[in-house]
Amino acid sequence: MSRPEEIQQKAMTGSQENTAIRTTAGNVPATFLQRFVFRLRIRFAFRALLRKWGWQILGAQIGKGTGVPRIKMNWPHQVRIGCNCVLEEGSVFNFARMDQSGPSILIGDNVFIGYYCEFNISESIVIGNDALIASGCKFIDHNHSIESGTLIHQQPNTGEKIVIEEDVWLGSNVIVLQGVTIGRGAVIGAGAVVTRSVPAGEIWAGIPARKVRERN
After folding, report:
1. Pairing relation of β-strands 157-159 and 142-144?
2. 119 vs 44, 79, 95, 101, CA distance in Å?
3. pLDDT tens-digit profile of 21-69?
4. Distances in Å between the alpha carbon of 69 and those of 45, 150, 197?
5. Sheet holding 61-62, edge to edge
6. Is the separation of the CB atoms in 67 and 81 below 8 Å?
7. What's the maximum distance between 2 C-alpha atoms anywhere in the chain?
8. Overall fold of domain 58-214
């Protein structure tokens, strides 16, 4: 082999070795990262399962296929959540009276509830199947009397059931107040305060919420 051919052969061999080194070095971190992520997912799934079992032991009814992130319930026996629901972290399920038999917070199947929603209930709330509840929504089914001449905190509360029917979409930070029924397929714009019932298939928004239009 002539001198130029020898130099060319060494250059090609070196290039192949460098490529092999780069490939191996590139695969090692990728494989490690995949294993690390997989182990994290297993750990989080196991913790979610433990949380679900814990709430069920305390009396909550939680359907098959529904995972439970970090949430709060003051009286778990008042909460029933259906199958295949998605709950994001931080929601609060608060029922005002421990002595009432439950459940009084009723959530259907295939419901999505976003981050940091609040269910502040003294009577009852029903959420139908396939509803979408975006982050920060609040449901408050009671109110204080506000007659003059008496301290407000000394006056009796009034309360009335809230109903969210099937296939409803509530945008972020919607507030739904006592006695409201939101009809099937209705859409409520982000930040709205819903003080009266919404017919099926309508789009409402604003403070207080008003009809914008009907769904096409």
Report:
1. antiparallel
2. 25, 10, 8, 17
3. 444 444 546 687 777 676 666 766 667 778 898 999 999 999 999 999 9
4. 9, 42, 31
5. 61-62, 79-81, 105-107, 125-127, 162-164, 181-182
6. no
7. 111
8. UDP N-Acetylglucosamine Acyltransferase; domain 1 (2.160.10)
Active site residues: 144
The answer to whether 157 touches 174, Cβ cutoff 8 Å, is no
What residues does each domain of the chain span?
1-48, 58-214
Contacts for 176 with CB less than 8 Å, ≥ 6 apart: 137, 138, 139, 140, 162, 164, 170, 182, 194
Q: What is the C-alpha separation between 188 and 9, in angstroms, rounded?
A: 72
Using only C-alpha atoms, the chain has a radius of gyration, in whole angstroms, of 27
175-201 pLDDT, tens digit each: 999 999 999 999 999 999 999 999 999
Q: How far apart are CA 210 and CA 215, in angstroms?
A: 14
CA atoms of 75 and 93, how far apart (whole Å): 8
What is the pTM assigned to this prediction?
A: 0.77
Structural contact between residues 110 and 84, judged by C-beta atoms closer than 8 angstroms = yes
Omega within 30 of 0 (cis) for the link into 103 = yes
